[in-house]
């Protein structure tokens, strides 16, 4: 019996020793697995820090057909017929009779077609006619939505409409409460320009942001939040508001938006913002309109930001247009 007890005790001791050894081995194995998992988690984080930010989609609806030749850019028109014609003639877009002679030339106008000028309506009619002629000839005339266009649809006419601009639409009528609340002399224009009205519907065809070739165009700027929201989405919201499909003005048409942001004004623009925007959209440069009253440099941020003055000239200098050809840009003085 004692021998049996001894053998049993010995067996138990061996078994316990074996279990204890396995436990230590398992513990070490588990520790290695945990360490391996920790390392596996750290590696992607380290790699992620090295990887560039994912490029935002180029927004195909906002990208127009690749230009076949030159692209000419016009700044703000502000309803100035004579200055508009002079700029277009300098570009080789029209003849003395105002007919399209540009062939496959692409003209991009950076917004603010409207302005405090008695010839505003005639200027707009000329642009409509030329856009149709350009398309028939294999070229294009693209007009962007600027701050003045937005303010007109918002029925905020202060300081941006000439007295003639109200007389031109004086016979127009509307029972829209928004129109009825305005002074009597403004109601005709308001009837046409209020969202859902005929002029607003025509403006709905214009974009806030346009990509053509190796450039992206906007009236005032293009920020990271604009690109991340999606430039197609911003253009779509603008269209819907002008058509009257949504009542409230979208945020991106207000002060922070591409037609009104002040971030890229002055001689110290936010170049890091420009750098990110052109990288995200895989283009070389952002082209915007230059504020009339500001005396600022035209080309900044290592050539990635180009600012084009009004066709009548501005505080920065006499009238000029921008020409983009073969990947290079140059300013051309407007012939008088």
Automatic annotation (TrEMBL):
Stretches assigned to coiled coil: none
Biased composition (Basic and acidic residues): 25-50
UniProt-annotated stretches for the region Disordered: 23-65
InterPro entries: Metallo-depent_PP-like (IPR029052)
PANTHER family noted in UniProt: SHEWANELLA-LIKE PROTEIN PHOSPHATASE 1
Protein name: Calcineurin-like phosphoesterase
